[in-house]
Amino acid sequence: MTNAGFILGSYALTFGSIVIFAWRTVKVGKRLSADISDEDKPWL
Amino acid sequence: MTIDTPASTTASSVRGTSTPATRVLGVLSIAMTLWLGVFGLLLSPADRDQGDAVRIMYVHVPSVWLAYLAFIVTAFASAVHLFGRRHSLQADRVAGASAEIGVVFMAVTLVTGMLWGRITWGVYWQWDARLTTTALLFISYVGYLAVRGLEGSREQRARRSAIVGLLAVLEVPLVHWSVKLWRSLHQEATVLGTDLDVSLDGLMLFSLFVGVVAFTLLFLWLLLHRSRMLTMIDLSAESGLDTALAQRRAEGGASV
Question: Which of A1, A16, B29, B129 is the most buried (most CB within 10 A)?
Fold first, then answer.
C-alpha cells in the first residue's frame, strides 16, 4: 500500500476519535446516573 | 445537620444512558464500522488515478455526511423548540447533543481531508473555496457550543442557541455546492452531483455505502446517549440548586 502512513493515520484518527467520544459519553452518563433518580430518566 | 436531597431519597441506578435498544444499536454500529475498516483498507481496489489514497474517502465522506446530518438535526430540533407550542427543552437538548457530535465529526473531516490533500495535492491546506467554507462551518458550530455555555436560564440558553442553530445550518448548502459556485481545487461530489450521476462503481461504491450506513447508525447511538446525558446534566444542576436553597433556608431557620 502506497502512502500507508497517511491512510492508516486517517483511519486511526477517525476510529480513535469515535472510541474516545463514545467512551467519554458513556462514562459521564454513568457518573451522572448515580445521582439522578430513575423516575427522572424517561428512557428507563 | 444533613439535608436530604431529591437524589438521595429516591431510588437510582447506575445504568447510565443505555437501554436494550441502544445496546443493539451500539453492537450494529461496531459491526458496521469494523466492516468498513475491512472493505476500506483491504477489499476495495486502488483507484486508477489516486492509487491507494482513495481509501481515505471511505472515512472522509461518511464523516462529512454525519456532520451535515448532525447540523441539520440541530436546526430541526432548534425549530421545534423555537416555534413549537411547548418550547420543549428536550428538543433543545437534542439540538445541543447533535451539534456536539457534528463538531467532532467535522474536525475528523478536516483532518482526514488534510491528510488526503497532502497525498493528492502535495499540501495539507489551501485557502480553497471548499476548504475555507468547511473551516467556517466548523468554527460556526464551535461558536454555537460556546453560546450554549453562556450564563443564563435554561430557557435563555435554548432560545439563543436555537437562533444560532437555525442561522448556522444555512452554511451547509454553501459548503456542499462551493465546488460548483467557485473554482476549487477540491473534487466535485463523489456520488451525487447536481446531475445526480453516480461516478463510482462496484466495490468502491459499496464500501462508501457501508461507511455511510455505519456512521448513520453511530450518529443515532451517540445522539440518544448524549441527549440523555444533557438531560441528566440539567437535572443535576437543578438538584444542586434545590440543595443550596434548602441549606440556605435551614441556616436562616437556625439563626432565628
Answer: B29
